[in-house]
Amino acid sequence: MEYNTSELCDLFADSVDVVDPIFASYGGRDSFGGEITTIKCYEDRGLVDRVLAQPGSGKVLLIDGGGSSRRALLDAGSAQLAIDNDWEGIVCYGSVREVEALQDFDIGILAITSIPVNAESDSIGDVDVPVNFGGVTFLPEDHLYADSTGVILSPEPLDID
Q: Do residues 109 and 79 touch, judged by C-beta distance below 8 A?
């Protein structure tokens, strides 16, 4: 589904939070949204692939990687895993790699930067915990909407029909 975050902000001004404009788009889809699943990890991608291996229909994976630009938490293998399990998109407060390949995947991927160095895969971190970055606190099961203009968050799904 296509989302227009500007329109959603106009319609739901009192019920959405706007995430600071810190992300670049790396995936092949500019617009995506859904209920979030959170991961908090730092320079370790083990939990990322573990969660992406689970069913993700109607969901967005939100990764708090501490804003690290030293190790990539996502790559082409992660994107393929997400598509295979029907995830709507991924927002990573951290880095990605294999940027050229990521652009070919029909999934939304936002991150703060790219770097060719892969992160460890020790599965150190937490799943479904509150995280805070970009001026917003993200709670598991909040709803995130993204397009080329920005990213917004709502505690409830937005009725846009």
A: yes
CA dist 62 and 131 (Å) reads 9
CB 30 within 8 A of CB 106: no
Cβ within 8 Å of residue 150, ≥6 positions away:
5, 6, 18, 19, 21
The model's pTM is 0.97
Specify whether the CB–CB gap between 40 and 125 falls below 8 A.
yes
C-alpha 76/C-alpha 104 separation (Å) is: 9
DSSP-based three-state secondary structure for 80: helix
Q: What is the DSSP letter of 39?
A: E
Per-residue pLDDT tens over the stretch 118-160? 999 999 999 999 999 999 999 999 999 999 999 999 999 998 7
d(CA 32, CA 11): 18
SS3 content of the chain, % helix, strand, coil (to 5): 15, 35, 45
Give the domains, in start order, of the chain with CATH numbers.
5-153 (3.50.30.40)
Residues β-bridged to residue 132: 137
For the chain, the distance separating the N- and C-terminal CA atoms, rounded to the nearest angstrom, is 11
Contact 143, 17 (CB under 8 A): no
